[in-house]
Amino acid sequence: MASQSGTISLEKVTQSRLQSVDMDNLPFGRIFSDHMFIAHYQDGAWLAPEIVPYGKLSFAPSMISLHYGQSIFEGMKAYRDLNGAPVLFRPDANFQRLNRSAERMCMPAIPEALFMDGLRELIQLDKDWIPTMAQGSLYIRPVYFAADEAVGVRASESYVLAIITAPVGKYYSEPVSLLASREFARAAVGGVGAAKTAGNYAASLFPDKVAKQMGYNNVLWLDAKENRYIEECGTMNIFFVIDEVVVVPMLTGTILPGVTRNACIRLLKDNGFKVEERPVSIYEIAEAYNEGRLREAFGTGTAATVSPIGRIGFSGRDMLLPPVEKYKVGNWLLKTMKALQSGEIEDPYGWIQHI
Question: What is the spatial distance between Cα 230 and Cα 228, in angstroms, rounded to a whole number?
């Protein structure tokens, strides 16, 4: 029976599915928690939101987002601290990026209170679904899409915001292998590369398939104009360590401004590492590799956290990175991020928010 919790209508499941889940063996993004948050935008206003049992949504085949791609999303995580209490990592940064994506895709801004109150109540309700730090984390997926039933190229006038959650283990269990592609491009200047919009990922699927057929995990994207400057890989922002310098491709509007990327750069700078955000050519990386100066390469992201890269393919040749145990910077970052998220060390940035 529906009840009322603050301004959010709440309908709980009659029986939780949690008992059927093996928290020690979690696939990524295939098991979903008991409830979801739903809010509708119609006639220029947001309607009363609700939390309901996780399930299917009903929509018409003429729904405008299916035809013209007006759809964006975010990736966030909830963790358990050392006392078992649920915490969020930088939810404000994800909310701000969601609204930046919405603006680029001609969608109404989401009110902060609507989003944050719904997120917090949903996580509080399904907090038992959060794995321990050793098991993984609770992945949070807000998705926001156009809902008009119409065929015609225009911005929708109605929208749906949903938040679903999924207990997950590691995204990558082994060092990642990447194929630097000069045949395909992810984004161009003036496009939507900095927005977390569904179409960016749809366009990446075929190049990703090609990379996998060649034995790689993912694509390392190069810029669309000169096909030489490294941007990101399909699931992560990317970092390199050349000699003793951490080199990160700079944001140009074609790279997703990662929340984890930003946090890692801040941590590195504040702890004495030399960091350069600048254009990084694939030829510079190849030269550093040839000269023995490429010490590390790793990716950062909500799903991947900090993931070592073991191999980069380019122009028919593989660059083999050192063993993970030699990753001084990447291993320090991963350890520090986990310690911050669990409360093992003090958070001087206000990134960790308790539910």
Answer: 6
CA 355/CA 351 separation, integer angstroms: 13
Of 236, 36, 30, 24, give the one whose Cα is nearest residue 136: 24
For the stretch 243-254, what's the b/e string if a residue is b when 16 or more beta carbons lie within 10 angstroms of its beta carbon? eeebbbbebeeb
Helix and strand numbers, DSSP H then E, in the chain: 7, 20
Give the DSSP H or E segment for 230: strand 230-233
Read off the pLDDT of residues 226-251 as tens digits, 9 standing for 90 and up: 999 999 998 999 999 999 999 999 99
Beta bridge partners of 78: 88, 138
Write down the pTM of the prediction. Answer: 0.95
Q: What's the CA gap between 130 and 75, in Å, rounded?
A: 15
Rounded to an integer, what distance in angstroms lies between the CA atom of residue 9 and that of residue 258?
33
Q: Which residues pair with 39 in a beta bridge?
A: 161
Q: Which amino acid is at 337?
A: M
